[in-house]
Each structure stands twice: as C-alpha cells, then as structure tokens.
C-alpha cells in the first residue's frame, strides 16, 4: 500500500515523511474496522484505498491549490475525504470537516484523536445551514468537496464558505465536462467564476479525474445557500 501511495505522489513531486505514512496506515486500520459497523466506504482493498481515496484526495497539492497558513473546509467529507489526507500532508493548514451524518462524525472525531491531528476540526451539520452561521460564512481560503452532487449543487454548498479571493475546488470524474454549463451559471449567481478545470489521470492508473476551481470574486448573496435539500432538488444551473 505504501508503494502505491508513494509512487503516485512522486509523480506529483510530493513525498511522505515517516509520521505521515504511519497516519495513513492507522487511518486505514480504523476505517476498515469501523466499516464493519457503519457504512464508510465500498473500497476495502488497500491498494485501491491508497489510489482512489488517498491519492485522489491529495490532487489539489499537485496544482498548488492549498498551502501553509490556509484555512480549508471540506463539505460532505463522509469518511474524511478529501479532508483527512490533505490534513495529514499539510500540517500548517487548518481543516474543518463538515458532515451531516452523526455516525460518520463520531468516526471522524475518533480518527482525529487517534492520529493526533491538531489541525482538524469536525463539525456536524448541513452545509446549507452552516453556511449561514457567522463563524463559517466567507471564513475559508478554500472549500473542497468530493462526490457531493452535480457541479451547480456543489458550488451552492461550497462557495458561500469561501472568502473573496479564495476558491472552491470540486473533485469530479470526466462527467465534470458536461456539468460545466450548469456550474458556470451557478457560480455567477453565487459570486464566483470558474477559473480552471484540471484534467488528469491519477498517476499510474487510467482513472480520469477533474478538479474544477471556482474563484470567489464577490460576496455570495444572503439568500444562498437555499434551505437544506433545495440545492439538489432545484439546482441553480437548470
Ligand atoms: N466526500 C466523501 C463522501 C461523499 S458521500 C468522499 O468523497 O468519499 C457524500 C457525503 O456528504 C455523505 O457522507 C453525506 O452524509 C454528506 N452530505 C451530503 N449532503 C450534505 C450537506 N448538504 N451537508 C453536509 N453533508 C452532506
């Protein structure tokens, strides 16, 4: 497993130190143990976890999107992706993991304690509600989200958390390309602008990935995000 992760990272010019590798090893143990009781991941083969969860989560580092001193919020982190791998690799950035499901939040808190991740906070709640809380609204340099829905839905649930000048980063598969028009319309309503779409395979695989970067250029109007469930039910891009 270590080789799979390290070979992939090497292709991006990234390296793991010993402590970071131990974190990934412990994370894998904890995830697979808890996965027997609560539904965390369908991927249980260590090599696939290394590539499809860990390496995939770390892709923004290959594009210089996250750096020291930044604050990052991960919306709908689930079992902690991409937030936990990013927090392991970036000890000098501060991560807030947002997840609606109580059981997953209990798991995440356990992981953070066991791995001693001093740069991670776990918050239970819906993005649509938390984004209206003063503590979180326009409070982050970067908002990331993986597997949260169509691009316009993702942007409504992430851009309100981003400071002006910061960005939202959506982790997508090849379908991102079809979703771009929806994303562009949503971004314009939310005070954002799609600035880049990075298209790449995960190193040493044929898995095609996309990172859609939306820059925040103006405040998000106070009516966004709409009430929980509405972004998905009536997507802004339609
Ligand atoms: N990002 C993880 C999980 C994706 S599944 C990964 O890529 O592996 C989506 C997760 O987001 C689920 O755990 C779900 O409970 C959570 N979620 C969905 N909508 C949400 C919302 N509006 N606010 C907070 N969490 C949400």
Which structural class best describes the helix and strand composition? alpha/beta
Shape: globular
Largest sheet at a glance?
A: 7 strands, mixed
Q: What compounds sit in this structure?
A: S-adenosyl-L-homocysteine
Strand order of the largest sheet: 3-2-1-4-5-7-6
Radius of gyration: 17 Å
* Strand fraction: 15-25%
Low-confidence stretches: none
Mean pLDDT: 98
The SSE string, one letter per element, is: HHHHEHEHEHEHEHEEH
Number of strands: 7
Regarding quaternary structure, how should these chains be classified? single chain
Helix content: 25-40%
Distance between the termini: 42 Å
Secondary structure tally, helices:
10
Summarize the structure.
With 238 residues, the chain is an alpha/beta fold. Helix content is 40%, strand content 22%. Helix 1 packs parallel to helix 3 (46-57), helix 2 (18-34) packs antiparallel against helix 6 and helix 3 crosses helix 5.
How would you describe what is shown here?
- The chain is of the alpha/beta class.
- The chain contains 10 helices and 7 strands.
- A 7-stranded mixed β-sheet has the order 3-2-1-4-5-7-6, with helices on both faces.
- α2 runs antiparallel to α6 and α8 packs parallel to α9.
- The chain starts with a helix and ends in a 5-residue tail after the last helix.
- The model has no long low-confidence stretch (mean pLDDT 98).
- S-adenosyl-L-homocysteine is lined by residues 76-79, 81, 98-101, 104, 126-128, 146-148, 157.
């Amino acid at each position: 497993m270590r080789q799979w992760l390290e070979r992939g990272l090497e292709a991006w010019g990234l390296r793991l130190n010993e402590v970071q590798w131990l974190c990934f090893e412990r994370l894998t143990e904890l995830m697979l143990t808890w996965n027997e009781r609560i539904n965390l991941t369908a991927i249980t083969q260590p090599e696939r976890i290394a590539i499809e969860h860990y390496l995939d989560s770390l892709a923004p580092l290959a594009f210089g999107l996250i750096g020291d001193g930044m604050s990052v919020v991960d919306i709908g982190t689930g079992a902690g992706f991409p937030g936990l791998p990013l927090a392991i690799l970036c000890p000098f950035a501060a991560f807030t993991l947002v997840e609606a499901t109580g059981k997953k939040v209990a798991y995440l808190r356990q992981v953070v304690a066991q791995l001693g991740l001093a740069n991670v906070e776990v918050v239970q709640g819906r993005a649509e509600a938390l984004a209206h809380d003063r503590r979180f609204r326009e409070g982050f340099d970067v908002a990331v989200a993986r597997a949260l829905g169509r691009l316009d839905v993702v942007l409504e649930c992430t851009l309100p958390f981003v400071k002006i000048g910061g960005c939202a980063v959506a982790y997508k598969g090849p379908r991102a390309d079809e979703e771009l028009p929806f994303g562009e319309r949503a971004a314009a309503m939310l005070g954002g602008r799609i600035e880049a779409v990075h298209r790449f395979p995960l190193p040493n695989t044929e898995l095609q990935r996309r990172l859609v970067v939306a820059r925040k250029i103006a405040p998000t109007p106070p009516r966004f995000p709409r009430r929980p469930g509405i972004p998905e039910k009536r997507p802004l891009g339609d």
